[in-house]
Structures are given as C-alpha cells and as structure tokens.
C-alpha cells in the first residue's frame, strides 16, 4: 500500500457495529488491574476527596480496616467501557452514554486485583436508535463480586440502503 492509498478513516480497531448488531449476553471483559497507591493518589487529586479512610493507613488500621479503602467512585471507574473494545465498535453509532448505577457489595482495599466486565443485559429498540443496557460487574482476586451495576448507551440503528 502506498502513502496515497492509505485512508485514515479505514484504520479501525474493530468492525463497526450498529444497534441491531448486538445480542443480549454478549460479554466484554475489561483489563484486570491491581489497585495501587498511584490509583489512590490520582483519584484523590481528581475527586478532591481527602477523607483519611482513603489515604491514611494508620487511620484505617485504628478503625479495624486492613488497609486503605478505595473510594466507591474510584472502583466504578474500573468499569469504564473505554477500557475495552465496545467504544471502538460503536465509534460511528454511539450517540450518548445515558446513565449508570452501581451497588457496592464488598470493600476494595489497596492491593486488591479487580476483574471488571460488561455484559449486554437488555436491548430496547426505538425508531432510529436503541438503548443498550449493560450489566457492569467487578470481581476481586478472591472471586467475590464487589460491584454490580448497569450502564446504558443510546446507539443508532443502521441506515437503510437507498
């Protein structure tokens, strides 16, 4: 391929998909991550949260915790769809990230390894669009479910051929 034949628009990470291309049960495993002191420090800077339960080991131990407790919103960040292939698949069809919800089922501490995943739970067709509801989960290294939630995305349907 010559330089003049190269088309940046054709440089896709994955095949593009539209609402009707998705199926309930499709699963997107996101990269596993061990929660580090750097994660805690970055989240503290971004959030402005300065409660000692999130950054003071001795405070945590004095309150019966084995170490620093990850902030719930910090844990939610590990479910960001952008860490996986879904946003690449909908790069032409995605209209909006509508909402999310989360339930925190177990604490996450410094040094825990998290295994986030998204799974299509519901597809709601509309006239020219559809809503993709994804269950978001995070398990820890002990196979415990620490977060259960949902993301919803508004995605275009494929335009009919003219």
TrEMBL record:
Q: Which domain of life is it from?
A: Bacteria
State the Pfam families in the record. Answer: MaoC_dehydratas
Q: Which residues form the MaoC-like domain?
A: 26-129
Record-linked PANTHER family: BETA-METHYLMALYL-COA DEHYDRATASE (PTHR43664:SF1), MONOAMINE OXIDASE-RELATED (PTHR43664)
Question: What protein am I looking at?
Answer: MaoC-like domain-containing protein
Q: What is the organism field in this record? A: Oceanibaculum indicum P24
Q: Upper lineage ranks?
A: Bacteria, Pseudomonadati, Pseudomonadota, Alphaproteobacteria, Rhodospirillales
